[in-house]
Design goal:
- By secondary structure, the chain is an alpha/beta fold.
- The chain folds into three domains: about 90 residues; about 30 residues, no CATH class; about 190 residues, Rossmann fold.
- About 60% of the residues lie in helices and about 10% in strands.
- The strands form two sheets. It has a five-stranded parallel beta sheet with strand order 4-5-6-3-7, sandwiched between helices. A two-stranded antiparallel sheet has the order 1-2.
- Strand 5, helix 10 and strand 6 form a beta-alpha-beta unit.
- Helix 1 crosses helix 2, helix 8 packs across helix 9 and helix 10 crosses helix 12.
- The longest helix is centred in the N-terminal third of the chain and has 25 residues.
- The radius of gyration is 30 Å and the shape is elongated.
- The protein starts with a helix and ends with a helix.
- Bound molecules: zinc ion.
- Zinc ion binds next to loops.
């Protein structure tokens, strides 16, 4: 929600509150009088402190009056069985009164949660991927546990370094289908998203559709794809899953090159996961692209049997 939307929502809440109070005091006029008298006393206290009292009463007398009014009000609330907070504004977040900030520049937990939800929605991760974390990555499926422990450590360190704002090599996750590459991509994404870093996760096919849509559909519908495409150039971490499953054309090579090259220029990291071998990457994509991918990445090789296949066997 933008700052303007937030301000409008606050104004609406205050208008609702004023209408509710009016109704309450119409129903219970004495409560309205008490509220008015209490406000008068508060004002008089301020005047008195400035040596300009208007009621001719001492501070002690004013306090006595206030206590008597509060007691009367309490008795009326009990008599009419009114909830204690009926005269208060119904804020969604009482902490910041829906401002989103506690002090200048200090965000409230409600705004942080809203921003985190937005980042998550924009990331492109599916609901299942939200549960794919470093903790839920189990080594029990792998024969070569040492290799996978190293891979896991590399991924954790990559995510931690991004969160600390440290420069990182990009990651190239190579290997067979179903060996945990997507799980680790999601785990890295979830880890950095929590730290307030923006992520875009896309399967290569969807990425190419997005580029085609933005480039060739010059009608009124293309605002969204163009914005989305621009965001891929600027997002803190870009994850391209399943490279090699697309139909590799000159168009794909060229567009991928622009994206990768632009992100390199701005030192923005990416992760690419692929079922292709390094040789196949070299052959399938032209040199300038494969050089940029291979020359700037730490390669993590996923080998062994597919976890999905093992799970199928277990389930019978
Ligand atoms: Zn708040």
């Amino acid at each position: 929600m933008s700052i303007v939307d937030r301000a409008l929502r606050r104004r609406k809440k205050i208008a609702e509150w004023e209408a509710n109070l009016e109704e309450l005091y119409k129903k219970y006029p004495r409560l309205g009088e008490i509220a008015h008298l209490l406000a008068q006393i508060s004002l008089e206290v301020v005047y008195l402190q400035m040596g300009q009292g208007k009621m001719g009463l001492t501070l002690e007398e004013l306090n006595k009056k206030r206590t008597a009014l509060l007691n009367e009000k309490k008795a009326l609330f009990e008599k009419y069985a009114l909830p204690e907070n009926i005269e208060a504004v119904k804020w969604d977040c009482p902490l910041c009164e829906d401002r989103g900030f506690l002090n200048v520049g200090e965000k409230c937990a409600c705004l942080l949660a809203e921003e985190s939800q937005q980042r998550w929605e924009l990331s492109g991760l599916g609901p299942r991927q939200k549960k794919q974390t470093f903790n839920s990555f189990s080594l029990k499926w792998y024969e070569d546990k040492k290799r996978y422990r190293t891979i896991l450590e590399e991924c954790v360190s990559f995510a931690e370094n991004i969160c600390r704002g440290k420069a990182v090599d990009n990651l190239l996750l190579c290997g067979n289908i179903g060996t945990g590459k997507t799980h680790l991509c999601s785990a890295i994404a979830n880890y950095v998203l929590q730290a307030g870093i923006s992520v875009a996760y896309l399967k290569i096919g969807i990425l190419m559709d997005l580029i085609r849509e933005a480039k060739y559909n010059f009608d009124s519908q293309v605002v969204r794809p163009i914005n989305r495409l621009q965001s891929l150039y600027q997002v803190d971490l870009l994850i391209i899953d399943d490279l090699g499953t697309e139909v590799v054309s000159d168009f794909v090579r060229e567009q991928l090159f622009y994206l990768i090259d632009e992100r390199l220029n701005f030192h923005l990291p990416w992760i690419i996961s692929t079922n292709l071998s390094l040789n196949e990457i070299g052959t399938l994509y032209e040199d300038r692209l494969s050089d940029r991918i291979l020359g700037t990445s730490t390669v993590l090789k996923f080998t062994g049997a597919s976890i999905r296949q093992q799970l199928k066997v277990l389930r019978g």
